[in-house]
Amino acid sequence: MRIVIPTTGSRGDVQPFVALGVGLRALGHEVRVATDADFGGFIREAGLDFFPIATEARPLHDTAAGQKMRAAGSNPFVFLRHFGELREPRMSELLANCWQACRDADMVLLTPTAFLLGYSVAEKADLPLFSASYLPTASTGYLANFLFPDLPPWVPAPRLYNLLSHVVAGEFLWQGLRRAVNRARRDVLTLPPLSFLGPSPRLFHDLPVVYGYSHLVIPRPPDWNGHQHVTGFWFLETAGPWQPPAALAAFLAAGPPPIYIGFGSMSNGDAGCVTGQVIEARRRTGQRGILGGGWGGLARPPDSGDLFYVESVPHD
């Protein structure tokens, strides 16, 4: 079976689906990951087919809207508003590229950041759908939507709050993207518009979903139906032997094991201040340290014999 997995975002949005794709390939399927251009080499190194549906993700996330989205903290409305701002002007391009990526597919696997793209393409091509996520997304009275904070335990009716958080998050995002999505569906795929309230609730009730996390970390909500499957984490081993740069190897060999500190693709409006706090915290522990700069969460510190800076290294 030829399976296409459209997704967008940062490394953390892409890697779980690459790991899932490797597992599907091991079962005999052909897998293509359709995502931002920065991840082409990473996906091909994992042995999967790659199709670029967007330009590089990092410059996009470094825009004003991208920085505001990543700095939204616990405010779901700020996050969703800027998430929509990043995608709204690119929707037709994204959908056209996603359509090209899925032209020879037997099945489309929907993901949280490209759900509407994959859904529209599958509708046009009359392809079966499956959904996958690295965090719980289905409505439940036992977990709030992942963008919403949990209520304090003393607040009455927590299940009602949890259920409403899923409805509000979905509708807020949909209303922000509705015009762009329906315009792209019309112009690119000649499809009718989705309704004012978005895709049918029946879709989310009946769609099979696999979740790539452990039920020991997030217990399965008792009100989920039989279409929700928690499989455990999707880990991805580094392809082939990896050797650290000589300077990093020398630092590791020069003393006791260091503490590693990094924030991946998260950014900060004042990375220098955060870096200073991290350096001071590390100094108080008396430990050596490695700082992972990632996408701007930490700045390059002054040279120090007990501190080493890297852009990124494989965590495994």
Give a verbal description of the structure.
The chain starts with a strand and ends in a 6-residue tail after the last strand. The longest helix is centred in the middle third of the chain and has 32 residues, at 158-189. The chain has 316 residues and is an alpha/beta fold. The protein has helices at residues 11-26, 40-45, 57-61, 64-70, 76-87, 91-101, 115-125, 158-189, 201-206, 246-253, 271-285; strands at 2-6, 30-36, 49-54, 107-110, 129-133, 209-211, 228-230, 259-262, 289-292, 307-310. Helices cover 41% and strands 14% of the residues. The relative contact order is 0.11. Strands 3-2-1-4-5-6-7 form a seven-stranded parallel beta sheet, with helices on both faces. Strands 8-9-10 form a three-stranded parallel beta sheet, with helices on one face. It is built from eleven helices and ten strands. The protein folds into two domains: 2-230, 3-Layer(aba) Sandwich (Rossmann fold), CATH 3.40.50.2000; 246-310, 3-Layer(aba) Sandwich (Rossmann fold), CATH 3.40.50.2000.
Provide a short characterization of the protein structure:
This protein is an alpha/beta fold and 316 residues long.
Tell me the count of domains: 2
Placed side by side, the strands forming the largest sheet appear as 3-2-1-4-5-6-7
Report the major sheet.
7 strands, parallel
In whole angstroms, the N-to-C terminal distance is 30 Å
- Strands, count: 10
Q: List SSEs in N-to-C order.
A: EHEHEHHHHEHEHHEEHEHEE
Unreliable residue runs: none
User: Which value, in Å, is the CA radius of gyration?
Assistant: 21 Å
Globular, elongated, flat, extended or rod-shaped: what is the shape? globular
Specify the CATH class of the largest domain: Alpha Beta
Structural class: alpha/beta
Strand content: 5-15%
CATH topology of the largest domain: Rossmann fold
Secondary-structure arrangement, i.e. CATH architecture of the largest domain: 3-Layer(aba) Sandwich
Considering DSSP H and I runs of 4 or more, what fraction of the residues is helical? 40-55%
Mean pLDDT score: 89
